[in-house]
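re: ur question from yesterday

yeah so i grabbed the chain u mentioned. its 121 aa long if i counted rite. heres the sequnce exactly as i have it in my notes:
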Amino acid sequence: MITKILLTIAVIIVVMLMFRRKAPRSGPQTIETNDNKRALKIAAVVALGVMIAGAALWMLTSWRDATEIVEVRVVNSQTGDSVLYQAHRNDIDDRSFRTVKGVRVVLAETERLEVSDEGRY
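ran it thru and got these structure tokens back, copy pasting raw so excuse formatting
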């Protein structure tokens, strides 16, 4: 995630440096007014603001989804018995998970894990 932000900042800096560098122009010279420069700066600031707001919104929704508390049901395939736990979504791995109370649960080969998505969206 940090690399995406750094890459975006690097691209912005490169583009700014390209526009600041004055290249000799051949052909008819055009007069650039301060209004054009100001409009370009405003557009750049607005675009940067939209990108930052979008990144912040994406990070917030990712964090919210990862820390959501879900019900985890561990079912024994041989006996049919099940045990219900609560865990954060990001604490669930393939064959193990950590409950809200901090207990680490590791599943046996005969058990399966079911995650409840009730009430989501």
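noticed a couple things. The mean pLDDT is 85. also The first helix runs from residue 2 to 20.
anyway ttyl
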